[in-house]
Specification:
Layout (H helix, E strand, L loop, with lengths): L10 E8 L2 H11 L3 H4 L1 H5 L10 H15 L6 E12 L8 E13 L5 E11 L5 E12 L4
Length: 145
């Protein structure tokens, strides 16, 4: 979709995604080697009482669901910023995450063939517990005049 085809307040539901222990360990072994993601015994002694997914893994999982919806298609030019990112609850093996993307703001200039979408990404687990919130800005093409 081109920039002008979006509307402030518009919402998109993301398809659910399951989080497996194997994926948690694979991601963590490459990108986030904290014991909470890799060492079962040590993680059980933590406040989380077991292995949890890296917050960055959680972000990547749900961002993948957003891109698979293909709403920005070939009209997306680039990501510009992540203005906020909050992990509000742990994600455990076998959790199922669902999310929503909401268009918060649209910034454009009459002199530019580009526009900026400010989106809110909100993610919850199967129990309805909020696990992640993020605000992201994406640069999109505008329709040609």
């Amino acid at each position: 979709m081109y920039f002008e085809e979006f509307e402030i307040g518009q919402k998109f539901d993301l398809n659910p995604v399951s989080v497996s222990l194997e994926e948690i360990e694979e991601f963590a072994s490459k990108y986030d080697t904290l014991y909470l993601h890799l060492d079962k015994e040590a993680a059980e002694e933590s406040m989380f009482k077991g292995i949890i997914a890296s917050g960055f893994h959680t972000l990547c999982l749900v961002w993948g669901q957003w891109t698979r919806l293909n709403k920005t298609g070939t009209e997306v030019i680039a990501g510009l910023s992540m203005d906020s990112l909050r992990w509000t609850a742990p994600v455990y093996p076998n959790d199922v995450l669902t999310g929503e993307v909401e268009i918060l703001d649209m910034i454009s200039s009459s002199k530019s063939r580009q526009g900026v979408l400010k989106i809110q990404l909100t993610v919850s687990n199967q129990d309805g517990t909020l696990v992640l919130e993020a605000q992201v800005k994406q640069l999109l093409k505008r329709k040609r005049d």
